[in-house]
């Protein structure tokens, strides 16, 4: 009788695994982790308390989206909590239900320059001009390779922060989630976002 050392045993086991694969099976595992399967944080929106309650119940009415409409009609968000607080006593965090779907939505950055004869960022006082401005934005989006509509728009706001508008059609079609806090709540400081980076993803 003789005893094999541990290195000898390991060598024999490996040799057996190579020569007799049907006898000694070595299992393998494949694990795929998708870090973007959950909700996507879209930004901050300041609203009155009553509107915040509607949002938390999943009610997104056109009337509650009214803003300066510089980028067209829709739900306006900002990438800065303090700027959202200027528009209401409650600041809501807006989430898109699926991060993967959000990244597939067409997005366009609008600058402060003119495209054709009209500025991209403007809020005409004459309602008859709204359609013309919207047609001009669609033409600009097409020049950037975005041909589907509606599309999400981004742009600067007064040089202090950036804004995003989700058109009404997308607001109604998509499953948005919200968390609302009183302005100044420390929870708001936990959320950060960069629109200029987002539009490039």
Classify the fold: give the CATH topology.
Diphtheria Toxin, domain 1
Tell me the fraction of residues in β-strands, as a range: 15-25%
Total number of distinct structural domains: 1
User: Kindly state the mean pLDDT as a whole number?
Assistant: 78
| Series of secondary-structure elements, N-terminal to C-terminal | HEHEHEHEEEHEEHEH
Helix and strand content put the structural class at: alpha+beta
Sequence stretches where pLDDT stays below 50 over 5 or more residues:
1-35
Q: What's the CATH class label?
A: Alpha Beta
User: So how many helices?
Assistant: 7
Q: What value does the Rg take, in angstroms?
A: 26 Å
End-to-end distance: 68 Å
Mass-distribution shape = globular
CATH architecture: Alpha-Beta Complex
Side by side, the strands of the main sheet go 2-8-7-4
Q: Give me the count of strands.
A: 9
Largest sheet: 4 strands, mixed
């Amino acid at each position: 009788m003789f005893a094999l050392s541990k290195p000898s045993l390991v060598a024999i086991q490996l040799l057996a695994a190579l020569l007799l694969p049907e006898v000694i099976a070595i299992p393998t595992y494949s694990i795929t982790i998708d870090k973007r399967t959950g909700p996507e944080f879209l930004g901050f929106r300041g609203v009155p308390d009553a509107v915040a309650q509607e949002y938390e119940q999943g009610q997104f009415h056109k009337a509650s989206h009214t803003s300066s409409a510089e980028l067209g009609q829709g739900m306006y968000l900002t990438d800065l909590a303090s700027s959202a607080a200027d528009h209401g006593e409650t600041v809501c965090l807006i989430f898109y239900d699926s991060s993967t779907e959000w990244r597939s939505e067409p997005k366009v950055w609008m600058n402060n320059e003119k495209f054709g004869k009209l500025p991209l960022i403007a809020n005409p006082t004459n309602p008859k001009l709204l359609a013309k401005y919207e047609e001009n934005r669609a033409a600009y989006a097409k020049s950037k390779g975005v041909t589907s509509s509606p599309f999400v728009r981004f742009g600067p706001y007064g040089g202090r922060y950036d804004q995003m508008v989700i058109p009404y059609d997308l607001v109604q079609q998509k499953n948005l989630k919200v968390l609302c806090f009183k302005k100044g709540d420390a929870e708001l400081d936990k959320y950060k976002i960069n629109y200029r980076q987002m539009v490039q993803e």
